[in-house]
Amino acid sequence: MGFKKGFLWGGGVSAGQCEGSFEGDGKGRAIREPENFHEPAVDFYHHYPEDIRLFQELGMKAFRTSIDWSRIYPDPWGEANQIGIDYYRDLFEKLNEAGITPIVTLSHGGDPYPLKQIGEWSSKETIDLFMKYVRTCYEKFGDLIPYWLTFNEVNCGPAVAGRGFGGEPPQPYDFVYNALHNRLVAGAKATVLLHEMYPESRMGNMLGYFAIYPKTCNPKDNIKCMQKTNVLHHICGEVQVYGEYPYFVKSFFKEHDVNLNITDEEREVLKKGTVDFVSISYYCSDVISHLEDRPIVSGNLVGGVDNEFLEKNGWGWHIDPEGFRWVLNDCYQRYKKPIAVVENGLGSFDTLEDGKVHDDYRIQFLKDNIGQMKVAVEDGVDVFAYCMWSPIDIVAASVKTVKKRYGVIYVDVDDEGNGTFNRYKKDSFDYYRHVIETNGEDL
Ligand code: BG6
Predict the structure, then answer these.
(1) Distance 342 CA to ligand 1 centre (A)
(2) pLDDT tens for residues 243-261?
(3) Ligand 1 pocket check: which of 18, 281, 404 to mutate, most ligand atoms within 8 Å of Cβ?
């Protein structure tokens, strides 16, 4: 038993990490962008027809990207930006014409900067402004998009904000979890609206999913591991799939002085707006110890204790394909929904020489991870899509550099925007094309 017929092999990016933002086309500054925000990234915004041709040559069946809210509504209270709408409309049309199914995230880092005036997601007004944007997206592009995702890695937000990230001070738990709650309500409303406007379309949530291991068999490590897993994955997962907060939030919120501002109407929306499928990202696993003094290694947003059984990538993230099998089984067992893997890949320094990139390390990563996904499918997990991160080089989110390259397509550009922006197929391009061609039979 292998991957099902029609399996959606693809690749994923986020708008903000690939498009670039140019003066003159009406895009506003997003919260994640610096003051002087006009940066080219890999200039997908001007190269997408060429890039789609390369995706087609790769055999991609699906392309996951996001719509940048700040490109559609530079001012969330104002008028929609027609140039932004035309751009996305054309992008999704061209993907469909190329036989590539768009999987589109409504929110992946593009929140408009002016939301800062009202405290971003801590304000209930942001839910209404988001719904205005969502309605525009459905009206303008809904006929072209069969799969939508609400918020990228919505579960990682609290971990990041609670710890302080990118120089920001840590936020109090009460603030963090109320802001998360508003996002969850907005996601449920977006799901209800999608089902009303396009009953055939499918909505997924998106969780950053980690295999988290106890450091030792000391029961204290195991309990700590359970608690971290519950809080990190399952507050969001349970709300989005089952429509209500899980049992353990009561004590967790009490311990951290969180007073959830939830209305009866919101409870009903959460119940009604549950997702049709679950989507996840998987990059690495973590280890947890009850001892405070263990050295912490880095990881995708949430780091953990060192795992001596695993190798690490150039940024210190554990490489753990078997953890991927565990994650898929764990997610399916808990949520019993079809799963789309929308991020999984290796960021590395690549060298372009004579138009070639010999990235055997990326081939190995894909081989091992897709191999373990195949084992999970054989275990009985219902996986229907795999979008590797990413088909083309992008700007890495955590370290804000294009030097951490993810693509099977190389883009000749550096962090200052110098370069030809020419695209080159890496060795991994041919490997992944073969995987797709054989529907994952020959890895
Ligand atoms: C995920 C994000 O957390 O990790 C992506 O959804 C991001 O946007 C990816 O690119 C890899 O992280 P990084 O920091 O290496 O880009």
Answers:
(1) 11
(2) 999 999 999 999 999 999 9
(3) 281
Would you say 387 and 63 are in contact if contact means Cβ atoms under 8 Å apart? Answer: yes
Which residue owns the Cα nearest ligand 1 atom 16?
Answer: 396
Tell me how far the alpha carbon of residue 285 lies from the centroid of ligand 1, in angstroms: 15
**Options 1.10.486.10, 3.40.50.10490, 3.40.250.10, 3.20.20.80; which CATH number does 8-437 get?**
3.20.20.80
Structure tokens at 397: 């989110």
State pTM to two decimals.
0.96
Residue type, 394: I
In one-letter notation, the amino acid at residue 180 is L
For residue 315, give the ligand 1 atom closest to its CA: 15
397 alpha carbon – ligand 1 mean position (Å): 5
13-59 pLDDT tens trace: 999 999 998 777 999 999 988 877 778 999 999 999 999 999 999 99
The ranges assigned to domains in the chain are 8-437
Residue 156 Cα to ligand 1 middle (Å): 11
Q: How far apart are CA 440 and CA 369, in angstroms?
A: 12
Residues contacting residue 346 through CB under 8 Å, at least 6 positions apart: 313, 319, 361, 362, 365, 366, 406
Percent of the chain with pLDDT over 70: 96
Q: Which of 300, 362, 392, 406 to mutate to test the pocket of ligand 1 (most atoms within 8 A of CB)?
A: 300
Residues whose beta carbon lies within 6 Å of some atom of ligand 1 = 14, 17, 152-153, 208, 281, 300-301, 343, 347, 396-399, 404
Residue nearest to atom 5 of ligand 1 (CA): 397
Bridge partners of 12, per DSSP, are 64, 389
